[in-house]
User: Which sequence fits this backbone?
């Protein structure tokens, strides 16, 4: 009963049941996260290139760079609004860190990513970023994420 009370476990059990139902119905069953991983890998080079360009433009327009509403000038279309994930990717690159998908790791339906040495989830709907700090998840700013990374980096030395 304790397991069913945990939203994340309940979500994963329901995903498993859905997969079993798909198999019984003769539908193709795909490993969870596989489609996302293939898509991620397919566009990784393109996104990295785009993120580098956006990071350069983002640095020039710091005044417009709040967490959810960063706006960049795009040479072809005029204005391009960055998603929260894109802002985080640009921030990671500006600080020479790694941003990576942690395959198979989810929290309450949100994908977990690595921001340097810090595990994060991105709530795009509410324009919030949460970081894992010891045994809990807490709301963080971009600078807070950088501080957490640096703090964890110094602990390891």
Assistant:
């Amino acid at each position: 009963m304790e397991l069913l009370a945990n939203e994340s476990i309940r979500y994963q059990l329901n995903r498993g049941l859905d997969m079993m139902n798909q198999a019984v119905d003769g539908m193709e069953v795909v490993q969870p996260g596989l489609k996302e991983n293939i898509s991620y890998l397919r566009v990784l080079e393109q996104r990295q290139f785009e993120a580098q360009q956006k990071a350069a433009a983002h640095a020039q327009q710091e005044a417009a760079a709040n967490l959810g509403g960063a706006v960049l000038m795009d040479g072809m279309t005029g204005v391009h609004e960055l998603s929260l994930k894109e802002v985080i990717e640009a921030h990671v690159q500006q600080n020479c860190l790694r941003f990576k998908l942690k395959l198979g790791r989810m929290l309450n339906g949100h994908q977990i990513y690595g921001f340097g040495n810090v595990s994060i989830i991105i709530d795009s709907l509410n324009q919030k970023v949460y970081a894992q700090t010891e045994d809990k998840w807490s709301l963080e700013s971009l600078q807070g994420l950088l501080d957490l990374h640096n703090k964890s980096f110094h602990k390891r030395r």
Observations:
- Confidence is low (pLDDT under 50) at residues 62-73.
